Amino acid sequence: MGILSPEQLQFFNSQGYLVIESFACSDEIESMMKRMEQLVDDFDPSSTASIFSTKNQQQSTDNYFFDSAERISFFFEEKAFGNDGKLKQPKQLSLNKVGHALHEIEPAFKKFSSSEKVSSLMRSLGYKRPAVMQSMYIFKQPGIGGEVVPHQDNSFLYTEPQTCTGLWLALEDANILNGCLWTIPGSHKNGLVRRFLRDEDGVKFDRPSPSYDQKDFVPIEVKAGSLVVIHGDLIHQSFENQSPKSRHAYSLHVVDMVGCKWAPENWIRRKVEPEPLFVS
Questions:
Q1: Cα separation, 274 vs 114, whole angstroms
Q2: Dihedral angle at the C-alpha atoms of 146, 147, 151, 156, nearest 10 degrees?
Q3: What pLDDT digit, counting tens, does each position of 252-267 carry?
Q4: Half-sphere exposure of 167 (CA within 13 A, CB side)
Q5: The pTM of the whole model exceeds 0.90
Q6: Domain parsing of the chain, residue ranges
Q7: Is the peptide bond before 107 cis (omega within 30 degrees of 0)?
Q8: Which alpha helices (H) appear in the chain, and where do they start and end?
Q9: How many whole angstroms separate alpha carbon 11 and alpha carbon 1?
Q10: What is the pLDDT of residues 93-106, one digit of tens each?
Q11: Which residues pair with 159 in a beta bridge?
């Protein structure tokens, strides 16, 4: 499991993404979802009101956001709060995501993230010393799950040479109605269009986003348990969830630690180097 066939590798190299159905079994999905339910139940929303804006990420410059690189932190949807500053609905239906070190700290997530099938997949893609740099549990809440604007993962997790690959696991069925991924097939061949940089003033993009023709995007509708492998330069997005059903997903971003350098201007500045999945 996880070892890619020549046909799968060819599709990934030409299109910039690959869907692997039934990558996670129902037990793995259930253990991650149950653990997240407990984490959210235990979370005190008055301890932070950190909002993750999927449209304006330059707002996310507080220390809570930066420290989340090596912690488990909770981020709310933009539409979660009323004018009075209070949550409009229960916290369970108000969170955008939890990140960014679930894969290191939480056993259920660590077990999946460091599983042999994930390692086999990274070996198939030619990685020599892959490390997970961030993990996120994304809720895509019914009715308020925010739009994620077109972007490339290499913008945020830049190495020289570029080595970021995204692994996006559907924990629930993802379709057009509840905000599935959309991508421009083959767009990874056009290179990186901009970078997300951190300096003493916070974070910002080094240039504006290009405009994209929505006709070029195709939806990636998948069943729970399917893994979408995403090239770091692939343009992808998701729309708001306007349906009554959530679209939970677990997302990992992996870089190689051999023969490439982690950019010091990236938003993630770890105090401890991540453990590689394997060394070959």
A1: 12
A2: -10
A3: 999 999 999 999 999 9
A4: 26
A5: yes
A6: 6-262
A7: no
A8: 6-15, 26-42, 63-67, 102-105, 107-113, 116-124
A9: 18
A10: 999 999 999 999 99
A11: 262
